[in-house]
């Protein structure tokens, strides 16, 4: 039996990732499309066929028979939309970040529990087979006691030549023939404005992965600031405009996991290339990392986990054979869990923990003092 799903927001992330996944997965039945711009919702609903279009979120919650509401809107709207969906008795899936503040996360979790519904938040990277493999290796002592790790989190966001061209190619490959023109593309300036920024948009992946592999963070220290106060935003193939950067575009975070285990996470809207090692975890007996690559247009990806043994003085490679995670994998997982009446394989308490770490990273940067983390999962 499929799960009836309503999508809120028809921007780039929805069009590039969630709409193709929803169309292709039999477990998902698209019953409603909602957007503050009703004409966008109507165009998508017509393209999908059989879905209702709404310009009012409240009306959609009252009238739609959707079981699961998927929130794919700008980050500053996530908390309120998720809250209203939960209060209406709907299961809710929230694109990252889950929300901005710990107290919001606490409230959403309590509301989900009170209404006996599921609540899940992206990024759901711990559903990715390489991460599951590495977590098992660490637990089995493959690298001994963990000492330190690095987790890069940088790119250019929307201020990069060819951003719209890739968007168009992704839609074309997936057969999405709606809202494809440059003038229909949503505004990407939120990447650099208050409520956005690389911590909540990029570092959220690294922090989720590292906590998924190593467990909860105990303290956080950070430095943060803005390198470029203005950016040239490539809104479409031909359109170029200057925008003011109002959220820090360069943040360095040091996570203390206790027992002298430290992880460095950078978060920046800077850099498109690097020859340095990507994510890696160093332990008393070895090193663990993962390599691979993929194409966001064709949605192909491969991965290999690499384990270095200090005693053997050699690397061992473990190719990942299982189907790999991509951005909307968590939605399909939750839809299947709802249909089968079982609990998801990842917890919302993990997402709440990540929210606290990100929030307190900024507090640490502003105050110059380490911040204690109170949540766990």
Any overview of this molecule?
The chain is of the alpha/beta class and 377 residues long. It has two domains: 3-125 and 329-343, NAD(P)-binding Rossmann-like Domain (Rossmann fold, 3-Layer(aba) Sandwich); 126-324 and 355-372, Dihydrodipicolinate Reductase, domain 2 (2-Layer Sandwich), CATH 3.30.360. Helices cover 34% and strands 25% of the residues. The chain contains ten helices and 17 strands. The strands form three sheets. A nine-stranded mixed sheet has the order 16-15-14-13-7-12-11-8-17. The protein has a six-stranded parallel sheet with strand order 3-2-1-4-5-6, with helices on both faces. A hairpin with a 2-residue loop joins strand 13 and strand 14 (286-295). Helix 1 (12-24) packs parallel to helix 7, helix 4 packs parallel to helix 5 (102-114) and helix 6 packs across helix 8 (197-214). The mean pLDDT is 95.
Task: Let me know the CATH homologous superfamily of the largest domain.
Answer: Dihydrodipicolinate Reductase, domain 2
The Cα radius of gyration reads: 21 Å
Q: Sheet bearing the most strands, described?
A: 9 strands, mixed
Q: β content, as a range?
A: 25-35%
What's the rounded overall pLDDT mean?
Answer: 95
Q: Which of globular, elongated, flat, extended, rod-shaped describes the shape?
A: globular
If helices are DSSP runs of H or I spanning 4 or more residues, what is the number of helices?
10
Overall CATH class of the largest domain: Alpha Beta
Give the termini distance in whole angstroms: 31 Å
Class by SSE composition: alpha/beta
